[in-house]
Design a protein that fits this description.
39% strand; three-stranded antiparallel β-sheet; alpha+beta; 705 residues; 13 helices
C-alpha cells in the first residue's frame, strides 16, 4: 500500500513540475522577417507578434474601470498551413479571454515552421501583460534583429515538432472537462445513489433498460445529467484544499485524446453495539483511478487496504464463511479476512475493469468486480453480495432490446474441495434479455449455468456462445456437468410515479411434481414482487419502496455440491440463500448534499440443525448436498430450525464531495434474530449497533444477514 501512495505522490509532483525546452529547425516566419537570417527569425517572430497584439488589443471597459493589472495566459498554435489557432486562454475576466481570441483570429497567415524542411505545426504559451507594454527592439550581440520583448515568455515556449514529443504532452494539456460523465465507465453501483435518477430512467415512454447493473454513464446521460447535478452541488471556494475537499478529484488531467483522475479512498468508522464490549471500527485506505483513451476505451481500478472489527453477529457470520487455510473469516462482500490483533480482521481488496465500446450498440467489459441483475433491492438472478470475481461482460443494445452476456470465474474455498492448497475454480455464464414491450411494460428472460472442470474440459467453449440455450447444453454435456437456472422478470410503469417489478426463478422443473400438490422438494423456485413510489406524496427526491422475496428450500443447491450457485462461500443471488420469505421496506431522501435512508426487513428462514441427531439438509444452505434432504414431499418454507428476524437500519449523512462520493454519516442498526432452537451455528441475537464514519461510497455494503 505504501508503494501506491508513493506512486500517487510522484505522479502529482510530476504533473505539477514538468517543464519543457526544445528547439526546432526553423520557426514560423512573418513577412516582415522573411529577409532575416535563421538565427534572427525567432526574435523577429516574437517582436512582430507582440507588436501586433499591442496595436490591436482593445482593453475591455470592465477591465479599465477596475484599474486591473495582471496577465492573460494564451496557449496557441501555428498550424502547418501557417494559421494561428488559440488552444486555451486563462484570464480573470471573460472579456479579456474573448478579446484575446479576437486578436489572434485577426493575425495574418504566415509561413509555417519547418522540420527537416517539411512544414510542421508549433505551439507556444504567451503572457499578455495588462496594462499593455510596448515591445522594444534592441541591438544585441548578433546584430540588429535581436529583440527584447516584455510580453513573450521565451523560457515557457512549448515547441511542438516531430522530435519534441515530450513537449507536446504538456502543450496538449487542457482544463479537465469531466469527460467521465460521457464515458463508458460504470457508475459505481450503490442503491442509495442510483435512487437519485431512478425515476428519470423509469419514466413512461423511455426506452431505457434498468435491470443489468452497474450502468455506464452514456446509458444514464440520455435521461439524467449527472454532470449538471454534481456542478449544482459545488461549493464556492477559491483555495486548492477547498476545491479538492468539496468539489474536485484530487488529480484530474486531460490531454488531446486522454484523461484520468486519481482519488484517495477512505472508509473510517467508529461504533459500539449492545452485545459486544470491544467496540466496532473500520479503517480503509485506498486509491481510485479512472481514465479514458479516445472516445471508446476506458479503465477503472480501486485498491483497498482495510482492517476492522464489526458487530458480533457480523463477525460470527464472517467466520462461518471461513475458507480453507489459516485465515479466520471471509468478510462478506469483500474477501478473505486475516487475523489482525486479537479480535479484528485485515482484508485487502482490489477491483478493476476495462470498458471498450467498438460500436454504439456494443459495450465490452473485462475485469474483476461484481454485477447485479434486477430492479429491486434484492436479486434472485444475480446479486452483488458475494466477493469480487473475474468477469467478461457484453452489453448489446438495439431497437427495444438490451442483451447482457456475462462469463465469470468463481471459487469454491471449502476444505473438502481444495486440491494442493489451491481453491477450486468453477465457471458461471448467464444471459439476460431485456425487452421493452411497450411504453410501460418491460419483460426480461434470464438463464444461467454453473460448471466445473469435469473431465479436464476447463472453460467449456459450449457456453461461450452468447445466444445459446444453456439448458440444452446441460443435457448434451451431462446433467452432472452443469447446473442451469432459468428466470423471468417484469416491470410495469403504472405511471411516472409508481413502478411495479418482479422476478421468478426456476431451478428445477418437473410438471408432475409441480401439479401434484404434495409440496415436492423438486419445486425449486422463488419469486420477487416489488413497487417503487417516486417523489412520494409530492415530496421531491423521496423514494419509497416495498419488496417481497420468497425462495423455496433447495433452490440454488445441487446434488453435486460444487455446482451450487455460490462463490467464496457466499450466494450469487439472494443474501439468505434459500428457504426463506422476506419483506423489505425502504425510504430514501436527499436534499442537496444531505441524505437519509431507512430500511426495515422482516423475514422468516429455515436453518439446518447441524447436530449428530439431526444432520439433514433443510434447504436453506445452498452449499449442502440436496441428496441429504430431510424428505421428498411436504417441503415448506421455514422448515428446519425456523427463525424469525427483524432488522431496522437508519443512515443519515452529508455528501462532502459529489465528484468522489465522499460522505460523512451516522448509522444505526437494530437487529432481532430469533431461532426456534439454539444451536452451535444458530444463536439468538438482539443488538443495537451505532457507528459514525466518513466513507468514499463506491459499492453496496450489506449488513442484513
Amino acid at each position: 500500500m505504501k508503494h501506491i501512495w508513493l506512486f500517487t505522490v510522484l505522479l502529482i509532483s510530476f504533473l505539477s513540475t514538468a517543464q519543457t525546452l526544445s528547439t526546432y529547425e526553423k520557426p514560423p516566419v512573418f513577412s516582415e522577417c522573411d529577409s532575416l537570417s535563421v538565427d534572427q527569425l525567432k526574435p523577429c517572430f516574437n517582436f512582430t507578434l507582440n507588436n501586433f497584439i499591442y496595436n490591436n488589443f482593445k482593453i475591455p471597459e470592465i477591465v479599465s474601470n477596475e484599474d486591473y493589472t495582471g496577465d492573460v495566459q494564451v496557449l496557441f498554435e501555428v498550424s502547418k498551413e501557417g494559421e494561428f489557432r488559440v488552444i486555451y486562454v486563462d484570464a480573470i475576466y471573460d472579456e479579456l479571454k474573448e478579446e484575446s481570441k479576437r486578436v489572434f483570429d485577426a493575425l495574418p497567415k504566415i509561413k509555417p515552421a519547418t522540420y527537416n524542411s517539411k512544414p510542421t505545426f508549433v505551439q507556444y504559451s504567451l503572457s499578455i501583460t495588462i496594462p499593455l507594454e510596448k515591445p522594444i527592439k534592441e541591438i544585441g550581440g548578433r546584430g540588429e534583429g535581436l529583440q527584447k520583448d516584455a510580453n513573450f515568455k521565451e523560457e515557457d515556449s512549448l515547441n511542438a515538432t516531430l522530435s519534441d514529443e515530450f513537449d507536446n504532452v504538456n502543450a496538449s494539456l487542457k482544463p479537465y472537462e469531466k469527460l467521465e460523465y460521457s464515458s463508458q465507465l460504470n457508475i459505481p453501483f450503490t442503491h442509495s445513489y442510483y435512487a437519485r435518477f431512478d425515476d428519470e430512467m423509469n419514466a413512461i415512454g423511455t426506452n431505457s433498460h434498468t435491470a443489468a447493473k452497474p450502468f455506464i454513464h452514456t446509458d444514464v446521460a440520455k435521461y439524467y445529467d449527472i454532470k449538471a447535478e454534481k456542478e449544482s452541488l459545488a461549493k464556492a471556494t477559491d483555495s486548492w484544499f477547498g476545491r479538492k475537499l468539496y468539489n474536485e478529484h484530487l488529480v484530474q488531467v486531460q490531454g488531446k485524446d486522454y484523461w484520468f483522475t486519481v482519488d484517495p479512498i477512505v472508509d473510517l468508522q467508529l461504533g459500539a453495539e449492545t452485545e459486544g464490549d470491544d467496540g466496532t471500527w473500520n479503517n480503509t485506505r485506498g486509491v481510485f483511478i479512472q481514465a479514458g483513451f479516445g472516445k471508446r476505451f476506458n479503465i477503472s481500478t480501486s485498491v483497498y487496504e482495510s482492517q476492522g472489527r464489526f458487530a458480533d453477529y457480523f463477525n460470527a457470520y464472517a467466520e462461518s464463511l471461513r475458507a480453507f487455510g489459516p485465515d479466520p473469516a471471509i468478510i462478506p462482500g469483500r474477501g478473505i479476512g486475516k487475523r489482525f490483533k486479537e479480535n479484528s480482521y485485515d482484508y485487502p481488496v482490489a477491483e478493476a475493469y476495462l470498458s471498450y465500446t467498438p460500436a454504439d450498440f456494443l459495450n465490452i467489459q473485462f475485469g474483476h468486480g461484481k454485477n447485479f441483475i434486477g430492479d429491486g433491492y434484492r436479486s434472485l438472478f444475480q446479486s452483488d453480495v458475494a466477493s469480487p470475481y473475474p468477469f467478461l461482460k457484453l452489453n448489446t443494445t438495439f431497437w427495444k432490446i438490451k442483451y447482457t452476456s456475462t462469463w465469470m470465474w468463481l471459487k469454491d474455498v471449502r476444505p473438502e474441495v481444495v486440491v494442493d492448497d489451491a481453491f477450486l475454480t468453477k465457471y458461471m455464464a448467464n444471459h439476460y434479455l431485456s425487452w421493452n414491450v411497450s411504453k410501460r411494460l418491460n419483460i426480461g428472460l434470464f438463464e444461467s449455468v454453473m460448471w466445473v472442470d469435469t473431465n479436464g474440459r476447463g472453460f467449456d467453449v459450449n457456453y461461450l456462445n452468447p445466444i445459446i440455450f444453456f439448458r440444452a447444453i446441460e443435457f448434451q454435456t451431462g446433467q452432472g456437468a452443469g447446473n442451469a437456472i432459468l428466470g423471468l422478470s417484469a416491470k410495469y410503469k403504472w405511471n411516472n410515479k409508481v413502478n411495479l417489478y418482479g422476478q421468478f426463478i426456476l431451478d428445477e422443473f418437473s410438471l408432475s411434481d409441480v401439479t401434484g400438490g404434495n409440496k415436492s422438494w423438486k419445486n425449486k423456485f422463488g419469486f420477487q414482487l416489488g413497487a417503487k413510489y417516486f417523489n412520494a406524496f409530492k415530496v421531491d427526491n423521496l423514494l419509497l419502496q416495498a419488496e417481497y422475496n420468497q425462495v423455496r428450500p433447495y433452490t440454488y443447491s445441487h446434488n453435486t455440491e460444487i455446482l451450487n450457485y455460490g462463490h467464496f462461500n457466499q450466494p450469487m443471488a439472494h443474501l439468505w440463500g434459500a428457504n426463506f420469505r422476506e419483506l423489505v421496506l425502504i425510504g430514501r431522501y436527499n436534499y442537496k448534499r444531505w441524505f437519509a435512508d431507512t430500511k426495515l426487513i422482516i423475514g422468516q428462514r429455515g436453518f439446518d440443525f447441524n447436530t449428530d441427531e439431526d444432520s439433514f439438509a433443510y434447504g436453506g444452505d445452498i452449499y449442502t448436498n440436496e441428496n441429504d434432504r430431510v424428505g421428498n414431499v411436504g417441503i415448506t418454507i421455514g422448515q428446519g430450525n425456523k427463525t424469525n428476524s427483524f432488522m431496522w437500519e437508519q443512515q443519515m449523512g452529508y455528501l462532502l464531495n459529489p465528484e468522489t462520493n465522499l460522505k460523512v454519516f451516522a448509522n444505526i442498526i437494530y437487529r432481532d434474530f430469533n431461532p426456534q432452537t439454539i444451536t452451535s451455528s444458530t444463536t439468538d441475537s438482539n443488538t443495537l449497533w451505532f457507528s459514525l464514519g466518513i466513507r468514499t461510497d463506491l459499492f453496496n455494503w450489506y449488513n442484513d444477514f
